[in-house]
Design brief:
By secondary structure, this protein is α+β, with helices and mostly antiparallel strands. It has 8 helices and 6 strands; from the N terminus they run H-E-H-H-E-E-H-H-E-H-E-E-H-H. Strands 2-3-5-6 form a 4-stranded antiparallel sheet, with no helix packed on it. The chain has a two-stranded parallel ribbon with strand order 1-4. Helix 4 packs antiparallel against helix 5, helix 6 runs antiparallel to helix 7 (305-370) and helix 7 (305-370) runs antiparallel to helix 8.
Length: 426
């Protein structure tokens, strides 16, 4: 039993530690060729692999095709009317058959084609904006996944440092136990602290592996690493919020589409004329005659008023949505900026005041313990204060990056990373 509390680690514990280290090394070490994945690189890889962009391009191509179709004129009609065919009595069956061969064309009135083309052109912009909005939503998801991976990597580093502190403390306690200056249970408790630190490190390593796998699923890469120091980047976007972000631009184009639909419904209220011209054969010799005619609906019943009012109401609804969305966005930007500044202030105070004091307290208590001035319980309390402060710091930094991702999404910070849209199908 003396060996358990001595300065040397028992053989079975050393072997187990080696096995755990090998397994964790296999899980977390990406290899010599692993690249350090920055946020910008992660977003670029996600954009390259995003299957939603080709889908958006296909919808843009569909909208472009709709524009071409909207400019097409109505098809002409070619026909024939046969009269006095198979008559009875003195007319006979085919003796006096009359046939009229005609060409008929519908004439659109009220600039219907111009209205249709204008409305269809707006749909192209809407398809592009929806494509970009989907890409920006993906960027936010990737940014959050990257934040999780960096925070988990930072937790691994802290857990490794805590294990080193626990091992050094165990050595100090074992020396005092061997010198009969502390009871045997103090050594047992120090061994328990080391075991707990080993478990915490193993859990942190597994969590880091899981977050890396989640991030890699967005990027299509399996070998990479993240820099834990990136979590300490407190750079907040301080540039002014764009007056017209992608979300607001979409709403404005939807308002334009509603306005264009009003015009389409208004011109549809004007009836179209139909003109006809042709030749009539009288069935007597070679005699023929020119025939012309036309028609136009009276428009006494259906004036398309209901569709016009519907389009006008839709435009009013979009205009109010724009006003509400602008206010909500500005309010959310103010809130997020305040939260970011609060996180920055808290982290800086932790780094400048609380964490150095907690670490210095732990050092002084350990020095005093070696000299017999403090108990092992005092060391545990001092070490717990350091651990809690470090964990709290990671939580604040993670919150900072999470809220920055939300602000980046609201302000189109990474819109330049979206590949340009195409209107042609592969």
């Amino acid at each position: 039993m003396g060996m358990i509390y001595g300065a040397r680690t028992p053989a079975w514990r050393a072997a187990a530690a080696c096995v755990v280290a090998v397994l964790l090394f296999g899980l977390t070490t990406p290899g010599a060729s692993a690249q350090t994945l920055t946020l910008g690189r992660a977003l670029s890889l996600a954009a390259e692999r995003d299957l939603g962009l080709p889908a958006g391009d296909a919808r843009t191509a569909a909208a472009a095709a709709a524009v071409r179709q909207a400019g097409v004129k109505p098809n002409p009609v070619v026909g024939v009317d046969v009269e006095n065919f198979a008559a009875t009595g003195a007319h006979g069956l085919v003796d006096q058959v009359e046939a009229t061969f005609y060409y008929e064309q519908q004439l659109e009135r009220g600039e219907k084609r111009i209205a249709r083309v204008s409305a269809a052109n707006v749909e192209i912009d809407i398809a592009r904006l929806r494509r970009n909005i989907r890409a920006l939503d993906l960027f936010r998801q990737v940014q959050l996944a990257w934040t999780e991976a960096v925070a988990a990597s930072s937790s691994v580093r802290i857990a490794r440092d805590q294990l080193g502190v626990a091992q050094a403390l165990r050595d100090d306690v074992n020396r005092r136990v061997q010198a009969a200056r502390d009871p045997l249970f103090a050594g047992q408790r120090a061994e328990m602290q080391v075991s707990q630190a080993e478990i915490a490190l193993a859990q942190a390593e597994i969590a880091a592996e899981n977050t890396n796998a989640a991030l890699g699923a967005y990027l299509g890469v399996g070998t990479f690493s993240v820099d834990p120091a990136a979590l300490g980047d407190l750079t907040a976007p301080l540039a002014a919020t764009p007056a017209l972000t992608t979300d607001l631009a979409l709403l404005e184009r939807e308002r334009d589409a509603a306005t264009a639909r009003i015009r389409v419904e208004q011109v549809r209220a004007r009836p179209d004329a139909t003109v006809r011209g042709g030749l009539r054969s009288f069935g007597i010799g070679d005699e023929v005659a020119l025939v012309v005619g036309g028609s136009m609906p009276l428009g006494t019943n259906d004036t398309n008023r209901g569709n016009i009012e519907r389009a006008e109401a839709e435009r009013v609804a979009v205009e109010r949505e724009i006003a509400a969305a602008r206010v909500q966005r500005d309010r959310e930007v103010v809130r997020l900026r305040a939260r970011l500044q609060a996180n920055i202030t808290e982290v800086r105070r932790l780094d400048a005041e609380i964490l150095p004091r907690a670490e210095e307290t732990l050092r002084l208590v350990r020095d005093g313990y070696r000299q017999g001035g403090f108990s092992y319980i005092d060391i545990i309390d001092a070490q717990r204060a350091v651990i809690e402060t470090q964990s709290h710091r990671i939580a604040i930094l993670k919150s900072f990056h999470t809220e920055r991702a939300a602000l980046d999404r609201l302000t189109d910070r990474y819109a330049d990373l979206i590949p340009p849209a195409t209107e042609s199908l592969p």
